[in-house]
């Protein structure tokens, strides 16, 4: 629909739609401020695998490969369609996953470097080997006697917590992006204006594939606390779209963002509501990973215990 200037923003749908995404945003912000210490991220969770015999350098190589592959794919997308692709939620999420893998690569490299840099005394060599093989739930019991475990079992700092929060935000965002594209947008795309190409297909699938494979390897915590960051991420995109629409553009990249229709509040409410099953699906996948793999491979799989929260 055409943008009627000020009249467009004086429609009754505007304040209703604004409240629909602003209320969850404010609730999420308050929850982050008041409940930010409900769980702690341990340093070793950032770069140690959940597989007992898998050396952490393999996670480092995988994260580096994922980042380089996604960066190349994004470069090809920009070359093919121009910088205007960043107007879409898909590219926002794709870049966020790249940020996760960039942080993961740096932190994994630092963890491996610290591991090889340490030169324990001869009587500590066995303790170092045990550290990479033991169940993470045994770390607490070793804190008093094992200085190596103390070093690696400390709470993560700013960058470690940032990586943890970006990881959980990516999880919900990639599920939302790919489900909306494959199940809602693609079936109704018609005409010569759109063609599903290999590049477009990869942009809407490899983000989830790379993240799921990383989840199968890492020992990062995954809790419902991350839903708040997922909500803030989507709210930031909607605010960006409203600002761009008011200042520069007269069309919406997604038809369900259009506010000049009587159905707009229902669309916005549906978008807000779908965040729960999208994030919940990834929570369920992580739980299945922990429960099934620990039973199928009890000698190889390490089940991570989430501090101060229910186990995921």
TrEMBL record:
<keyword id="KW-0812">Transmembrane</keyword>
<feature type="transmembrane region" description="Helical">
    <location>
        <begin position="166"/>
        <end position="188"/>
    </location>
</feature>
<keyword id="KW-1133">Transmembrane helix</keyword>
<dbReference type="GO" id="GO:0016020">
    <property type="term" value="C:membrane"/>
</dbReference>
<keyword id="KW-0472">Membrane</keyword>
<feature type="transmembrane region" description="Helical">
    <location>
        <begin position="266"/>
        <end position="286"/>
    </location>
</feature>
<feature type="transmembrane region" description="Helical">
    <location>
        <begin position="87"/>
        <end position="109"/>
    </location>
</feature>
<feature type="transmembrane region" description="Helical">
    <location>
        <begin position="194"/>
        <end position="217"/>
    </location>
</feature>
<feature type="transmembrane region" description="Helical">
    <location>
        <begin position="229"/>
        <end position="254"/>
    </location>
</feature>
<feature type="transmembrane region" description="Helical">
    <location>
        <begin position="54"/>
        <end position="75"/>
    </location>
</feature>
<protein>
    <submittedName>
        <fullName>Uncharacterized protein</fullName>
    </submittedName>
</protein>
<feature type="transmembrane region" description="Helical">
    <location>
        <begin position="12"/>
        <end position="33"/>
    </location>
</feature>
